[in-house]
Amino acid sequence: MIGKNFYTQITFRVLFMVATIFFAAYFFNKAEYLFLAILLTIVVVQTVSLIKYIDSTNRKIAYFFNAIKNEDFTLKFPDQKNVTSFKELNKSINRLNALVQEVHIKKQEQEQYYLEILKQAQIGVLTHNKKGHIMFVNPRVEQLLNYTPLNHIKQLKKVDNELYELFDEMKPFERKLFQLTNERETVQLAIKSTEINLNKEVLRLITVQDIKSELEEKETDSWIKLIRVLTHEIMNTVAPITSISESILSYYKEGEDATTIENFDQTKLNNTAKGLQVIKDQGNDLMNFVQSYRSFLSVPKPDKKIILVKDLLERIKMLAIQEVGFDNDACTITNHHPELELFADEKQLSQVLLNLCKNAIQSMLATENAQLHIESGMSSEGYKFIAIKDNGPGIPQDVLDQIFIPFFTTKEQGTGIGLSLSKQIMQLHGGSLNVYSIPNKETVFRLVF
């Protein structure tokens, strides 16, 4: 229906023009030049009329699309009965115009809705282009940085020059922690970056979050757990000393006075000697415990150099498989990138890997078909990693969140320092040590650089 009248008009005009040209040719053959001139004039008029007719339609459609492009929805074409030739076309364009206007309004409402959410969010959101011009920033960012208005990331120099360098140098999917101090307060910021494509332009989206309260909560929780473990270890050592001391003291006192030599016999002397030996051993254990604590607090700064991961893992395997009761063939290595290199302290990194491998082997001594697998490569985010996997009994969920606490251990002869020391070494390397475990199926310790 849209083009019915239009096509009828075009067909009629073309046919009439062809008929006129036919008669003009006829009069030309008859040498009737007067009629020929009249008919040729009519052809010219018909041609101009046809061009204007088609052009008016084109202009009308062009006006419509230009109006849509400029978000002008006030354009309306006459669709009354007295405009018969374009009535259906005009009606269709007006309906389309109304539909586009409705979609546009809904889109604006949705954008306003999301914008309001971003304004109320407790996480700061900032977007800037490659030239540093800030395209969007919500009030939370300006509140956290105590600076407004933000139009360009170079303005961050006025807040903190190191913060500006961090924003300027951040790579996609990178996450950084930054402590910002101003005249009001000190905030601990978690800053994360990603890239988005918008209208064929690459924009950097940065989120800023104040994690000070979360860190304080975690710090308090860590202190409570550490104090609980220290109290447990110290009490286990001191309690026998107190009990044995009281027993020995009873040999040497009668009421408030010291006992006489006549009251001593060989049995009491032997018990005294045994008790003092136990006190000495417990004292040594307590000294070793304190020494472990001191070693945990005094990890030297890494002496980094380039390490070929493939060679490092082969050495670790040779050292780890010496554990008594473990099948040497049950340890395998997979290097997804054989030429992978790390810039790290080889001695410290070897200490971490050997500790993890030995822990895995010891946990699998009662496991049938025990398997230890060491894997290295690059993650999908571009980070280098080394993973230690085993199919032992695993780590219970209630223990999993405590294994990195200093001096916490599930071993009878363990000091509880190995995993916490390993985690600290990885943090000194700018990396992390993560773990997940499915009991009786798989346990994975993952070193991420």
Automatic annotation (TrEMBL):
Alphabetical keyword list: ATP-binding, Kinase, Membrane, Nucleotide-binding, Transferase, Transmembrane, Transmembrane helix, Two-component regulatory system
Keyword Iron assigned: no
Domain Histidine kinase: 229-449
BP terms from Gene Ontology: phosphorelay signal transduction system
Keyword Transmembrane helix: yes
Example of a GO MF term: ATP binding
Highest rank taxon of the organism: Bacteria
PROSITE patterns, per database record: HIS_KIN, PAS
Pfam families, alphabetized: HATPase_c (PF02518)
Enzyme Commission number(s) from the entry: 2.7.13.3
Residue ranges of the TM segments: 12-28, 34-54
Domain PAS: 110-149
PANTHER family: C4-DICARBOXYLATE TRANSPORT SENSOR PROTEIN DCTB (PTHR43065:SF46), SENSOR HISTIDINE KINASE (PTHR43065)
UniProt name for this protein: histidine kinase
Organism: Spongiivirga citrea
